[in-house]
Amino acid sequence: MPRPVVTELRLSAYAGRRNAAYPIGPVTLFAGPSGSGKSTVLGAYEALARLGAGDPLTEVFPDPAALVPESARPDGEGRRGFRIGCTVDGPVGPVRLDLAVQAEPDLRIVGERLTRHGRTLLTTALRDPGRATVQAAWLTAGATPVTRAPLPDDLLGTALLPLRVAGATEGQREVLAAAEQAVVGLRSLFSCVPAPERMRAPVLPGEGRLLRDCANLAEVLHRTHTACPRRHQRLAAVAAAGCAGPVTGVGTQQLPDGTVRALLARGARPATPLGRLGDGELRYLALALTLLTGPGVLAMDRIAEVPDAMQCLTVLTDDLDRGLDPRQAAALLGLTATVAAGGHMRLVGAVGAGTAEEARRTPGVRVVDLTP
């Protein structure tokens, strides 16, 4: 059975993008010069994922006015906004989610549409600007064609449907299946932003789940060394391909104060603490570790009701190749393509021009050029 995955991202009117639709494959890299909108596109994806997880608008869009297209003119009430959407494919086929957000004068969702095979399953609309709700209508296909009810205007309605729809009719079951597929596809996202300056110091052992900035890299390596020896051995091979000098393994050392630090084994040579590695090597190792683990080892919003085997995790990372030399970038691209081919992991990222050329030569990698 196919796992839910985002297959298209739409920026209908968002920041500097209008009527833009981007296909999303197992490995999708956005390329272009500075200012071409790579971070904007990735930010829209992450925003939809957070909304799917139930985060409120104010947390997802702290500066909504910056996302309104410059050419957008306010209406008679002074209202301006932006529109984004996506398609999530999976067991029930392609499901489209489109969202209209009012940024000024007040941040709120003013329109949402969930469709499957051209059939509208959910629509919402702002009926009374004085209320903090939108009027929602979802398919019932029973004695009453649709069910109407108010929903909060600061939360994604699709994410609320599993709590509001009984599933008593064929139409309601179709709505539930589509909504759950959309939510699972969106929530299966881990945003990885490695920060080498935070990865050098020893850390206290904890639950061993890799943070977004990978600051606890040593702690997670300590966990994988004991709990996931096969993955850890594979990481050691990947480290040898991207780190300077001979690398025979990746290990950890517990220090007298109870903290742990990570080490690169060098065969007969003394081991090298990860704290002495360059920024590029640390980012390379952090991204490789992320790709070789799963939801249980990443500090992300777990979907407890869906088994890990039924999910496909998407790693989202901006500036994928920042600080990497060509050899490291090529090794990381090869690893990404290999891991994605297994169907359990995908990657969406942004790269510079040099890495984009290498990516175009890597089977299984799609490059989307955002050059104006």
Could you give the topology of this structure?
Blueprint lengths: L4 E10 L2 E7 L3 E5 L6 H15 L4 H4 L19 E10 L5 E10 L3 E9 L2 E7 L7 E7 L6 E7 L4 H8 L5 H18 L1 E3 L25 H11 L1 H14 L6 E6 L5 E7 L2 E5 L5 H14 L20 E5 L8 H15 L4 E7 L1 H8 L5 E4 L3
Parallel strand pairs: 3-15, 3-16, 10-14, 14-15
Antiparallel strand pairs: 1-2, 1-4, 4-5, 5-6, 6-7, 7-8, 8-9, 11-12, 12-13
Report on the architecture of this protein:
- The chain has 372 residues and is of the alpha+beta class.
- Helices cover 29% and strands 29% of the residues.
- The protein has an eight-stranded antiparallel sheet with strand order 2-1-4-5-6-7-8-9, with helices on one face.
- Strand 6 and strand 7 form a beta hairpin.
- The longest helix has 18 residues, at 170-187.
- The two termini are 39 Å apart.
* Oligomer description: single chain
Strand content: 25-35%
Helicity, as a percent range: 25-40%
Tally of DSSP helical segments: 9
From the alpha-carbon coordinates, what is the Rg to the nearest angstrom? 22 Å
Provide the succession of SSEs.
EEEHHEEEEEEHHEHHEEEHEHEHE
Please state the average pLDDT score: 93
Distance between the termini: 39 Å
Helix/strand class:
alpha+beta
Brief overview, please?
The protein has 372 residues and is of the alpha+beta class.
Identify the notable features of this structure and list them briefly.
single chain, 372 residues, alpha+beta, eight-stranded antiparallel sheet, five-stranded parallel sheet, 9 helices, elongated
